[in-house]
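Following up on my earlier message about flavin mononucleotide. Here are the inputs again, as you asked, copied directly from the submission form:
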Amino acid sequence: MATLESDCARRFKAVNEIIERHGKRPERLVAVLQEVQEVYRYLPEEVLQYVATGMGVSPAEVFGVATFYENFSLKPKGKYIIRCCDGTACHVHGSEALLTAIRQRLQLTAPETTTPDLMFTLETVACLGACALAPVVTINDKVYGQVTPDQMVALIDELAGGEKDGKD
Amino acid sequence: MEKIKSGEELERLATMYRQAARKVTKRVLVCAGTGCVANGSLQVYAALREAIEEGGAIVDLDWLLEKEAPDNATRLDKTGCRGFCQLGPLVLVEPDDFMYVHVRPEDAREIIQESVVNNRCVDRLTYTAPGSDKHFDREEDIPFYKKQHRQTLGNCGHMNPEDIREYIARDGYQGLAQSLTQYSPLEVIEEVLKSGLRGLGGAGFPAGRKWQAVREAPGERKYVVCNGDEGDPGAFMDRSIMEGDPHKVLEGMIIAGYAVGAAEGYIYVRAEYPLAVERLHKAIGEAEEFGLLGDNILGTDFSFKLHINKGAGAFVCGESSALVASIEGKRGMPVPRPPRLAQRGLFGCPTLLNNVETFANIPYLMRKGAQAFASLGTATSFGTKAFALTGNVKNTGLIEVPMGTTLREVIFDIGGGIKGDLRFKAVQIGGPSGACLTAEHLDLPLDFDSLKNAGAMMGSGGLVVMDEGTCMVEVARFFMDFTQRESCGKCIPCREGTSRMLEILEGIVAGKGQEEDLALLEEIAHMVHDMSLCGLGKTAANPVLSTLRYFRDEYVAHVRDKRCPAGVCASLRRIVIEAEKCKGCSRCAKVCPVEAISGEIKKPFTIAEDVCIRCGACISQCPFGAIKEVS
Ligand SMILES: Cc1cc2nc3c(=O)[nH]c(=O)nc-3n(C[C@H](O)[C@H](O)[C@H](O)COP(=O)(O)O)c2cc1C
Ligand code: FES
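Thanks, got it. Here's what our run produced:
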């Protein structure tokens, strides 16, 4: 178990490495933020400041990019990121019911997307590109096709119960 | 691996790989496209591996290039998407080409014993058409595949996308070799012009003209960019190509680089496609190793480098100028044109931007020549087009047909008709920039111009089929919700216009619409179309305008009669008590939370509609099934 401090230091080191690897070039900003988000699972404000200084771009620019793209989050995300597709094909195949079931199971109300215990984040996406399996849900990039609300709830129960890593 | 130094050497290698592959005829191919993986194809692959190894040996290309195959040798590989994702996991057994659907790991032994060892078909695992018991042993006999012409998708599902040698054995990089050695850059452009190839990412702009413009633009540095953003919900053609045949995209881009005089290229892939990114990375590495990418390609003095950029979740980044901004690390906001990308694009340099599928057409075009390419299609649209066929049709999946194939052929012959044998109502083509077409368009040929004349557009190729149970107003609301969220906010007509249109549509489906709303909706739609900065806004109103045009009576029913003919819009549903069935027991009145139900015991009860909140509590209480929801 790493102490909090060393964990912090390790992460900052990782951020440094990312910036170095991309040669501090401003055009790599999106890629840098993507990798930084992988380290923290979100983009903490102080890290954005740090990236700005490190890359020699204004904090406003970094903040602008971080808030423009939907994949970037300035708030901590859950351990399991559930992305429920609400693209055309999935919509036609009942993704609404799925979303409602997930929200109910996780007790999430409209603007809130992450559970207080930081276990689950629910996002909707417009098309995961697996429309033939509609409705589609991914959990940490693992694709589940033709899911029913009941299956979804069971899946969440399972993840919430066992401390199993969703990334396999 | 030594770098390949010439076209002849490439040809020699191709022959060598083909000869090696011929040493074993038995091959089992497991689809490892996103759809099949989600259905468990990797477990099936593992089970097949075990089953083969029990009585035989698995050999791969490396083995076959070195030595002879033992008698009981079989090849086992994972492939890209075969298109019929709904039936996955799919397994194909060569040389008899038996195709098995919904394969489970438990089936592995039987498949190997019967089909590999005894050359017999396992009937129970073959495809049967819904509603009949006719078995189809082979892929090409299945109606879903019969009317298709899989040219661009031809390799997908038939080879291992992670092995460049397989691509080379299937004439891969021949188009590049021919371009570099037999054509000058201008002649390549001439060939693309002659082929009539039009951009397959949506607008259908002639590819050759774009290439020419970039070639002619002054500037030392030029770029080639591939648009793999594929943001249209309901579309996954580009994904399947990038995942199932990544080298084809690279080859197309390298040829383009040679033609327009670029030394560097970028592939912009949306973040939702991690497997595509992985495969492309791998393919780039292999191509460099083989001397097909990098410095002095095929021993010539042409050099070309490729990079991959991952999107970060913004639909507008599919728009050309926004995409360029995103590659430059900025917010993906469009800028007014001109200048076009061909004049000033990436890093201020002349830039060629084409779609994944457009690039994937180039190798075939250069290998076979413009004439062969143009032999398929209609008078103004040539070659083939891939579509993602989804929605309420029996067979969903990825298909490729010659330009000019009719909607009827696609929906009823390939798609097998509407699920549950309901009636066909509409097909949405072209995503949020596209339109809804109706039964009267079923004989419309799918080509750029016919679609445009019908008020629709090819778009990237999403075809979402809708049955009679679909509410078209709700569909329009759905697309407006998408566009409004994705509007980048830079220009006011799009930002405000889409918000206002969404508000109106939300009002209509909630039963709060007025008849005047329809005219207002149309007015805003035209304003947004005329005044928006980029294609997102210019096309945002298409779903609204096309549904207003073809399904006006549905809108009228919503706003005037407060009725949803398809029975979809919850707020417009009514709950009624059937007087003939009601025995007057009063149970319903007791559960009604708002006291909307009244009546005399033993006489039919009634619901006061203005009080009813449509919670449905009464429906489940009624022991006689007398209460139901109507629209
Ligand atoms: C809002 C918007 C989104 C777009 N999304 C895509 C996309 O995801 N993929 C694509 O190839 N083209 C997309 N386009 C079209 C591109 O701007 C461009 O026309 C196309 O990539 C050019 O390639 P092509 O000529 O080979 O079709 C989009 C356009 C707009 C306005
Ligand atoms: S619409 Fe859901 S995966 Fe495409």
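One observation from looking it over: Chain B has five domains: 14-139, 164-373, 384-467, 472-560, 573-630. Hope that helps, and feel free to reply on this thread.
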